[in-house]
Amino acid sequence: MRLNLHFAAALAWTLWQVIPASANDVRPITKIESRELPPDVVTQRVLSQLANILHLEKYTADPGHRPHLPLNDLWLWTSPRATYAPELCAADQVTVYFRPVAEISGPETKTVAEGIHAKTYYRFLHLPVLPMFSAMGLSDVRDLRARCADVNPEKEQMLSARDEESAVEGVWLISELASELKSTPPSFTLDCHDYRDDDPQCLSDAKLMRPEEVTNIESCESDDGRATCWEIDQFGFHGHDIGVRLYVETKNGKPNIVRVHPIEWVTTADARAD
User: Fold this and answer.
1) What is the pTM of this model?
2) Does position 21 have pLDDT exceeding 50, yes or no?
3) What's domain 171-265's architecture?
4) DSSP states of the chain as a string?
């Protein structure tokens, strides 16, 4: 169903200008209506709703800049929404890909949408205080929805994670890491094999990790078969990109960090051809 919605989002963006204003029916739709109304009516209703929550991400360029290539893609964000995790908002970044339908003539080339990609990003209004959560009730979700509406995913730091549970546990673990590093010695093993022998930068990078600056959370393969592995990255802060692999074992129902493997990323990027 999620893939279908993302595909519909692309169609919504390309169709909202050709659907007459009188046809923009954004009324809520029920499951019964979705199965009993004619397919073209259901499609129109869904596309109108999606067009109502998609917002084009502005392309920023130097003043006076003029592009030279045909339109290849556009980025859009859905309106921020509440999740069922306390204080956690989400928004989807939708990329629509285009192909030329006429002779290539630089930025004036006529194009049509032909593909789509969507990815969910998250933002905490307040950092999690527990590694797990119970889904909030509807009244709490309504309250959070109103506060999530103020999030601007184009301007505010968003984090990438597989799902809400991963976002909560990953950010909580970085809070635990920061707390543990204030102890001497910490309760976990510090694995610095990617750094030179006795390189103080290893510990320094670990101490630079901040829960509010996490940009990416992924699971990784554990090398000992017992611990759960998390790879958590922090890009765009403190002058260089860093991350940690956290090896976590559950004791008495609580995740405990047993090994920390800091990573210093070397990232390169070329200017995007336009």
Assistant:
1) 0.84
2) no
3) Roll (3.10)
4) -HHHHHHHHHHHHHHTTTS-GGG-------HHHHHHS-HHHHHHHHHHHHHHHEEEPPPP--TT----S---EEEEEEPPEE-SSTTEEEEEEEEEEEEE-S--BTBT--EEEEEEEEEEEEEESS--SSSS-PPPPHHHHHHHHHHHTT--TTTS--EE-SSHHHHHHHHHHHHHHHHHTTSSS-SSEE--TTS-TT-HHHHHHHHH--GGG--EEEEE--SSSSSEEEEEEE-SSTTSEEEEEEEEEEETTEEEEEEEEEEEE----PPPP-
